[in-house]
């Protein structure tokens, strides 16, 4: 698993600035090269009628150039290699297509799409559903990533690999967590995953929680710098993001959340 090339979608929102800030300050850990992309959303060109379409397009492109210049300025100050792209299209489609050649996406889960009533905005949701690489979602500012929480309900190797690689790069620790439910005691699973991580030379701890999985993970997230969650395939991810565990954790966690989709 590698994190050499990271894609950072941006818009004019404050949360987008937070994602840029985290990407720049974690470069060298997550990436050797950043790509900042602003997608001028063609679906909004005619929101106010055909008379305003050209004006809307010009406004969005101007906004995009300014946002990209700002992101580039931060990367220049940090001496981080980067490129910028201003593209017309449907944001989630452009970002998902670009993810084929990237190792990770860092993006806000609000921005212009917004989070409404505890739901992830449509752009972020569709990117996560269709991305070909892990998506690290940001809700609040955080430059420090040392302690990682890895909630498990099965042996999701893609998520385990991401946790191992991230921990190695930051010399951090992974806590493997499972929530005890009706299906039995998850201690064997937790210990098995922890053993894999330990064998890779990474510091590891274990945690067994009880109660509602969302409440348990969100409650624990305040003690960690990053949550990494695995999801099973595109169909399974859509089901999970439909108001269930992963979505509620992304919206309510006290730290960034990386969603890892197993596309094999």
Tags for this entry?
264 residues, alpha/beta, Rossmann fold, ten-stranded mixed sheet, globular
Q: Runs with pLDDT <50, length 5+?
A: 111-119, 234-243
The computed structural class is alpha/beta
**Overall number of domains:** 2
Q: What is the overall silhouette?
A: globular
Give the SSE string.
Answer: EHEHEHEHEEHEHEHEHHE
Q: For the CA atoms, what is the radius of gyration?
A: 19 Å
N-to-C CA distance = 14 Å
Strand content: 15-25%
* Total number of strands: 10
Average pLDDT number = 83
- Write the CATH fold name of the largest domain: Rossmann fold
CATH superfamily of the largest domain: HUPs
Helical proportion, percent range: 40-55%
In CATH, the architecture of the largest domain is 3-Layer(aba) Sandwich
The neighbouring-strand order within the major sheet is 3-2-1-4-5-10-9-6-7-8
Main sheet record? 10 strands, mixed
Number of helices: 9
The CATH class name of the largest domain reads: Alpha Beta
């Amino acid at each position: 698993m590698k994190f050499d090339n990271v894609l950072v979608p941006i818009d004019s929102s404050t949360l987008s600035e937070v994602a840029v800030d985290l990407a720049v300050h974690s470069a060298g850990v997550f990436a050797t090269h950043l790509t900042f992309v602003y997608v001028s959303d063609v679906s909004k060109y005619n929101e106010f009628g055909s008379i305003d379409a050209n004006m809307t397009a010009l406004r969005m492109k101007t906004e995009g150039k300014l946002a990209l210049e700002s992101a580039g300025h931060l990367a220049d100050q940090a001496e981080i290699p980067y490129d910028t792209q201003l593209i017309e299209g449907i944001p989630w489609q452009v970002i998902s297509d670009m993810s084929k050649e990237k190792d990770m996406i860092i993006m806000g889960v609000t921005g212009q799409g917004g989070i409404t009533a505890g739901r992830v905005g449509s752009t972020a949701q569709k990117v996560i559903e269709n991305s070909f690489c892990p998506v690290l979602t940001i809700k609040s500012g955080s430059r420090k990533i040392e302690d990682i929480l890895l909630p498990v309900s099965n042996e999701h190797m893609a998520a385990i690999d991401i946790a191992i690689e991230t921990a190695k790069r930051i010399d951090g620790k992974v806590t493997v967590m499972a929530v005890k439910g009706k299906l039995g005691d998850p201690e064997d699973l937790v210990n098995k995953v922890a053993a894999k991580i330990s064998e890779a030379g990474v510091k590891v701890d274990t945690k067994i929680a009880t109660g509602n999985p969302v409440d348990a993970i969100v409650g624990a997230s305040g003690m960690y710098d990053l949550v990494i969650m695995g999801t099973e395939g595109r169909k399974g991810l859509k089901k999970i993001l439909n108001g269930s565990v992963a979505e509620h954790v992304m919206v309510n966690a006290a730290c960034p959340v990386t969603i890892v989709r197993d596309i094999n």
